[in-house]
Amino acid sequence: MLPEVGTVSTPVLALAAGAVAVGGAGAYALTAVLRRRRTDTDDENFARLRDTIASLESVALVVPENPSVDALAAAIGLRELCNQWGVTARVFAEDDVTSDDAKAFCNLFDVSLDVAGNSLDDFDGAVAVGGGGTVPSFANRPPVVAVVRHRPAAVDHSLVLDGDDAGATSTIVARFVERAGLTPEQDVATALLYGIRAGTREFRRVRSREDFRAATFLQEFADQGTIDALRAPGMSGETFDVIGHAIRNRERRASFAVTNVGSVPSVSALEEAADTLLRLDGVSSAAAFGVHEDTVVTACRADDVRTSAMDVLSSAFDQTDALGGDADTATARVPLGLFSRVSSDQQSTLDELIDASTRKALFSAFEQA
Fold first, then answer.
1. 268 vs 261, which has greater pLDDT?
2. Are 174 and 192 a contacting pair, CB within 8 Å?
3. Nearest to 70 by CA among 184, 179, 194, 237
4. Residue 310 has pLDDT above 60, yes or no
5. DSSP 73-84
6. Where, by residue number, does the polypeptide cross the bilayer (predicted)?
7. Edge-to-edge strands of the sheet including 144-148?
8. Quick one: pLDDT at residue 246?
């Protein structure tokens, strides 16, 4: 799929016709014009973000609940830019972090990830980094001054930098770091490079050459040893057992896979199970669901640019206690409510109802995506 380049002007259309007529030379000229258009847009976005943030004294960089590695890496890169612009910046999450990958990332890069709340009152503005769907408002305390995320999204905000040709949020931020003329610190370059690799699924979901260009820029400054450590994080015994349940209970239709892992000790184990299903040959979208603390939690993964994990879960469940994530990875929570109080002799019936209804809803949503 070619990246969107906006409305094409008459001169560009004329050049396109010339390209057809004269062959290679014309095609090269057309490519050069389109590349300049993208560069001009990137420069404008960079200037808008810089001017917005530089007008403040402090900024909260807020990643989604249980953020992706890509979102975390992008936040680290933005924090470096804020420091360059003389603005105090700190990274927060909308809610607790439970993913093993995210925890390993925070440990390696010494990121203290506090939950956003009243602690944001001390900041002049907030930047929403990564994620998908609606943008948190924080009751305007502080106001959200910018949204930085990859893949276009319908967001009602005056400054949305969504890089329609970027396969990862880290790609957008890496381009900004390069445009700022910065030589990134090793930990920043390493974080952003791994963020690009994670966001593009090791470059299997590249949307344009911009992902490769950003990675090439960062490669010179990054620590490959740290990236190798991140690619092979440790796995707890509980997570290992959950993945075993996921593999045994999987059901596949076309390129969609769904599994029920039953009761799970942590949401991160459920997410690992969804990631595992996505590695199966021929599977491009997957979902794993289970019960955690009287709530049916579903983790969805999409490895196909035509499918959005957020849209799948939004379509599958009319009412959720929480829905978060982005087009690649998303999580939904549906409280059991009164059903959580069933007696032990009715538990098996409840489990069967949860299994049948959730599988039906997910496969229906996948087929419509």
1. 261
2. yes
3. 194
4. yes
5. HHHHHHHHHHHH
6. 12-34
7. 114-115, 88-93, 58-63, 125-129, 144-148, 160-161
8. 92
**3-class secondary structure, 296:** strand
- Go through the domains of the chain in sequence order and give each one's CATH number: 39-231 (3.90.1640.10), 237-368 (3.10.310.30)
CA–CA distances in Å: residue 184 to residues 53, 76, 98, 181, 206: 19, 11, 29, 9, 23
What would the pLDDT profile of 219-229 be if each residue is shown by its tens digit?
Answer: 999 998 888 87
Please give the sequence-ordered ranges of beta strands (E in DSSP) within 124-249, or none if there are none. Answer: 125-129, 144-148, 160-161
Beta strands in the chain (DSSP E): 58-63, 88-93, 114-115, 125-129, 144-148, 160-161, 251-253, 256-263, 285-291, 295-302, 322-325, 329-335
Comparison of pLDDT for 231 and 190, the residue scoring more: 190
Measure the CA–CA gap between 325 and 259, rounded to whole angstroms. Answer: 19
- Rounded CA-CA distance 144/130 in Å is 14
Residue type, 322: A
Candidates 20, 285, 1; CA nearest to 152 is: 1
Residue 43's φ and ψ, nearest 5 degrees, are -60, -40
Helices 24-54 and 10-22 meet at what angle, rounded to 10?
Answer: 150
Q: What is the mean pLDDT of residues 304-316?
A: 86
Helix (H) or strand (E) run with residue 38 in it: helix 24-54
Half-sphere exposure of 271 (CA within 13 A, CB side): 22
3-state secondary structure of 115: strand
> Which residue did the predictor score with more confidence, 136 or 7?
136
More confident residue, 316 or 96: 316
Query: Are the C-beta atoms of 252 and 277 separated by less than 8 Å?
Result: no
Distance CA 81, CA 177 (A): 7
Burial class (CB in 10 A: 0-12, 13-18, 19+), 38: middle
